[in-house]
Amino acid sequence: MASQIGTMGTILHARKEEGVAIHPTFNVSVIFGKRDEPMLVACARQLIEHISSSGSSRPLVLSLGLKDHSMETMKGIVSSVIEHRLW
């Protein structure tokens, strides 16, 4: 959960899809909140890709309550989660 507004904001579900393809595919869906904000989906996708590449097969539920949806904010969230290995 990352929030600038004091509430949960948009809740996203991200998972790695297993299949016969050589390269994995990832699915990100908005469970609740803003469905028209591509930066939130991109943030969730980057996180699930990194988590999966580190060996975890667990899905991700992510809550983002943000005022600022800029690329810099998203990069900060992703790098903080990766740095602290919060999974």
Average residue pLDDT: 93
Note the main sheet.
4 strands, mixed
Strand order of the largest sheet: 1-4-2-3
Q: How many β-strands, per DSSP?
A: 4
Radius of gyration: 13 Å
Low-confidence stretches: none
> What is the helix fraction of residues, given as a range?
25-40%
Multimeric organization: single chain
**Number of continuous helical runs:** 2
- What is the approximate shape? globular
**Helix and strand composition category:** alpha+beta
Proportion of residues in extended strands:
25-35%
Distance, first to last CA = 12 Å
Query: Helix and strand string, N-terminal first?
Result: EEEHEH
Describe the 3D structure:
This protein is of the alpha+beta class. The chain is 34% helix and 28% strand. The chain is built from two helices and four strands, in the order E-E-E-H-E-H. The chain has helices at 38-53, 71-84, and strands spanning 2-3, 10-17, 25-32, 60-65. Strands 1-4-2-3 form a four-stranded mixed sheet, with helices on one face. Strand 2 and strand 3 form a beta hairpin. Helix 1 runs parallel beside helix 2 (71-84). The radius of gyration is 13 Å and the shape is globular. The mean pLDDT is 93. It comes from Rubroshorea leprosula. InterPro entries: Proteasome_assmbl_chp_3, Psm_Assembly_Chaperone. This is Proteasome assembly chaperone 3.
